[in-house]
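Dear Dr. V.,

Thank you for agreeing to look over these. As mentioned in my earlier message, I'm a first-year student in the group and I'm still getting used to reading structure tokens, so any feedback on how I've presented them would be very welcome. I ran two proteins. I've put each sequence directly above its structure. The first is here:
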Amino acid sequence: MAVREAYNTWSATYDTVENKTRDLEARACREILSEISFETVIELGCGTGKNTEWLARRAKHVTAVDLSEEMQAVARRKVKAANVSFELADIKAPWGFASAKADLITCSLILEHVENLKFVFAQAIEHLNPDGHFYVCELHPFKQYVGTKARFETDDGLQILECYTHNVSDYFHSAEKSGFLLVQLEEWFDDEEKVAVPRLISFLLKNRMP
């Protein structure tokens, strides 16, 4: 199912149906980014705003970006902070939505829908301040290897989105070639035992370009 169409449809139930991936990423975002300071943020894949309001409480300004107008419509109803501006845009095209460089760029659960990681990482470094951070949290490749994809139920049955598998090395190579330094790598599990396949992988990267 095409990505924009799928998320437009999914928006009606995205916040109400159990979603371990969504909830675990919200936890990861808060745990990792609580350790750094930032004033300006570009949030890629803001969706229904699960991280937007939290980011807005810690920053002077947040640019919340999403491909789906219906997902973002939910976020607009939920997030009323004056320091948040919403932009409809496709991150696979040049980032005209970024009017100024940011201290932090976040990217949550959207890169499985992007074939060319290198383009996204190159755009991120271009729109990041010196010493700024790029937070990426995505479905773990191990989950992808066993066939897990973004999916949701409708009255017409199970809807499976168009997805691409990215290896850990794909993230590393894209980050390194774009000029990022790895600060922190974490794997996120559904339980504390850490005996099953991890659900998510996150990277905290830093701009090492002058």
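The second protein is here, in the same arrangement:
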Amino acid sequence: MLWIRKHRPYSIGIDMGDDSVKLVQLEAKDKVVGLVYGGSKRRPADIKAGTVEWQRWAIEAIREIIANGKFKGREVMATMPASEVFVEVMKMPKSKELKVEQAILSKIKSKLPVLPENTMLKYIPTEEDNVIVLATEREKIDRHLAIYEKASLQIKSIGVWPTTLTNTYASFFGRRKSDLESVVFLIDTESNCTNVVISRHKNLLFVRSIPIGKKQFGDENMITRLNLELAACKRQFNSMYRKATIERLIFLSGQAVDKEVCMGIAKQLEIPAQIGDCLAAVEIKDPLESGIERRGCDFSWAIAFGLSLTR
């Protein structure tokens, strides 16, 4: 496939997870999306996530990936790790005295890990009078902003991981006209968690992060527990959205998760399924110079890709 002369690079997407940092930059080409460059670093086992030592490691890791890579520009899109984001799906609260955000805070404040005044909250109205609430500590956001500033990057925005997953889905696996109204069950498995998004194309309907990931897949009991948790997500969704029917299950982790595990999940949920490999969905001009090893890749790149695609 020919590359057009004038490429349009997107921002660099940074997926700062609990156990690794992943950077990727995509580029608009003639009706397709191409990979500019990608790079990753694993967090050393002796450094605890969220500590001052972790912050120093993250700064140096990002600097090293940028220095050794072929990225274009220093503008980045980032997101908070799922473990640092409180998520709740509920009915939109009704109150004549309180504003919407105040009414939501009043309903969830007992569940928040910190005081409401130290929390940054985002709420997303969905269908059938439901709402998705995402909240995180202001201190943690400031900590992430400091990392990018000290790494000499220009932070464009810090988004939320569920919308980055719908970006990846819509850009690569939901491009048919019929997909615009289809409800899909998206699963992205990281090392220590499995992130769930149910959406109508890009419109979020249900969100949850389950603290069971690839590192726990060596234990059959943990896989069984994950299947039960995913089935519970489906039941909760069905109880909240009477007019919506899930049509497809898409594993956005691609080849990073064993197919047998994916097949077991699909059987448990009883939903037609497919592997959504975003690395296979982009044009790679020179695989040897891309910074990402596709064969044997044990990382999920879905969040990083979705961040780079964000405008």
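From my reading of the second output: The helical segments are 52-68, 100-108, 138-150, 161-172, 220-240, 259-269, 278-281, 302-309. The first strand starts at residue 8 and ends at 16. Does that match how you would interpret it?

Kind regards,
E.
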